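new request in #modeling-help
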Amino acid sequence: MAEHLLDAKGLNCPLPILKAKKALKDVPTGEVLQVLSTDPGSVADFEAFCRTTGNELLDSKTEGGLYTFLIKHTA
Amino acid sequence: MSDTANNAKSLSIIVTKGTLDWAYPPFILATTAAAMGLNVTMFFTFYGLPLLLKKLDLQLSTLGNPAMKMPMMGMHMTMPNAVSMIPGVDAAATRMMKNLTKKKGVASIEELREAAVDSGVRMIACQMTLDLFEYSLDDMIEGPELGGAATYMETATNSDINLFI
């Protein structure tokens, strides 16, 4: 479902957000970026990031210590 | 400035401290705010000004840092103020902090500063501090403009969020 992938595993705040913002620039509007993270803080942070920027958080998943986010580039 | 519309929110930060630990909050907040679409201005003054130098050599001190505890062998070790007097202790604490940040995937100040420049964060170097500590804009990275209190106040008046760090 996600055509674009950002592996932010091992990175700490605020790098997953900064890298996601950079990656979204190369994602055409309407397409989805998948972000992988191991930072527990990124769960709340990606919600806040998407609410503030207007991008759509389609899914936020936790499996063990791995967090997966699907962000639709809308803004 | 990238991705920032005219109706975007704005943040200004006065950066007054230049130790390794205190350099983090302003750069973390500035880069994150820029990533979230805010217009960001950082005003570098007093000990914060050297954070704009081309080559950074940031140190931290245990002195006046009573809450500083470092994880060590599964425990947290207090860094008493007095040990700061012993030659080499602050250098060791600095090394420890740099190793910790690397190990935990925390960005370096250099990385965050580069991200701030790349995302269009406006940087103002305090003219008075340049004079006071005998720096020149030539010593600094590309990008900062010169300004004083009035330049900052104009920005602060038009900003939604103003922080002093």
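bot summary: The helical segments of chain A are 15-24, 42-53.
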